[in-house]
Amino acid sequence: MISRLKEKIIYGEKSSKSITRSAMLIATMGIASRILGLFRDRMLAGKFGAGDTLDIYYAAFKIPDLIYGLLVLGALSAAFVPVFTSLISQERKKEAWRLARTMLSFGILLLSVVSVLLFLFAPILVKLIVFGYDAQKQAEIVELTRIMLLSPIILGMSGIIGGILNSFKKFFFYSLAPIFYNVGIIIGVLFLTEPFGVRGLAYGVILGATMHLVVQVPEVVRCGLRFIPLFDYKSKQLYRVLMLMIPRVMGIAMTQINLLVVTILASTLEPGSLAIFNFANNLQSVPLGVFGISFAIASFPALSGLWAQNKKEEFISKFTGTFRKILFFIVPCSAMIYVLRAQIVRVVLGAGVFNWDDTTLTLSALGIFVMSLWAQSTIPLLARTFYAIHNTKTPFFIALFSEVVNVGLALFLIRDFGILGLVAAFSISASVNAALLFVMLHNRIGKFKKGRIATFALKMFIATSAMMIVSQIIKHSISDDPFGSARTFLGVFTQLITTLLGGGITFVVIGRILKIEELSHFIVVLKNKLLSKRPLAENERNEVGGI
User: Fold this and answer.
1) CA 68, CA 153: separation in Å to the nearest integer?
2) Chain segment 82-103, per-residue pLDDT in tens
3) How far is CA 410 from the centre of its chain?
4) Among 11, 209, 362, 438, whose Cα sits 20 to 30 Å from the Cα of 271?
5) pTM of this structure
6) Residue 439: how many CB atoms within 10 A of its CB?
7) Closest by CA position to 167, among listed 235, 77, 239
8) Distance between CA atoms of residues 456 and 464, nearest Å
């Protein structure tokens, strides 16, 4: 049985996989990665608190992240994967591998040149980005930025390799990569900060990026990649990638500009504001990564393949079924995070020099973030659905409008609400982005069956409301302290777990009574994965019908 399971997980099944099962694998690895990420944040918070040191660390990420977002994510999510998948599905593997080699060759060259240029101009750029910081903090940010400029080159190679594994639906090693990335950063916190100071954090990032790459190499070699440098600038497939990539890069540029605006404005606020933003964002990103991104990643190759084969009805069913599954997980998660935001912050971050002022600001930011978690979690799927139909312009213009809303609101709200104003602007603009993407996608492909949407939404509202009521009763029955007896780790942890269990059971019971299809489907899949040796029956493997 062990060898059979290993064959299924690592090398893929010969029969068709459902998106749900692929997403469960990605989500499982995602949970492990996010747990490590939370452990990483706890160590950072306990060792440095929400102060100058972490402001420097997070600010130093901005320029490397800008390169990675524009040149790697833009090429992969919008361009390379759909084109590569299309070639594979058409049995044009020779062309596919030539494209992969060309992308790797040009990618490494371009990322290296850009990184060298940014290394040289880092002092000027840092002064523009964090003009609110003093000269000493700016100098330290420059030093860390220059070290971390190696990471986009390494992650660029890893990202293209991951895109290849994605196209072949080889999700196991692809999903392991973020775990190793976090392990590298944790090693930096534990062992490199003592001898190297804050530079040890940057060295940990480089170690993590290297591990992110190395873990995927053996599997992509098994898939057939033989990396011999190839600069085929006349390739028609490369031209297709570039044409798809340009609007996506512009769209990501809007997102990166937003993050730069957050950094710029945070540099004018109290020390630790940028750290607070990142801590709260990382906490709410756990369900976002586990469910929203996992389902989007798992569905993307299937959506690209169905559209390439002109199977529109199956394409719509695949998208709508996946969309509902994301909301099924995200809506109750958002509600529970909001109810238990104080307990979550204290359990995850409440150590060392992370004090009560840091706690109250972080839990307030977290509460605002989760208001838009439904939007943040569906945007990856909505955007990838547009990319699958080779439409990158619509997501770009929607992202452009949303970022204008974001920046405008941030400039207005920061005057009265400080860092919480930045978080509120982020949440509102994300909601606008998701709503517009959904409406435009409906107009483009149609047939979303609005009646089923309304029924699903009503059932989820009832089940989630009941869960929140029961959770509040349990939480306050344990303690009347508004912070949930958060004076000791054991006390707040007990309250957190007890309330989660009570709320979760309530949601499941009400969901079964209301016959929420996604819940029934999830239970069937879970039972067969955990309790049964037999494969899923055909009717059990089928996706829940479209909206």
Assistant:
1) 8
2) 888 888 877 788 888 898 899 8
3) 22
4) 209
5) 0.77
6) 11
7) 77
8) 12
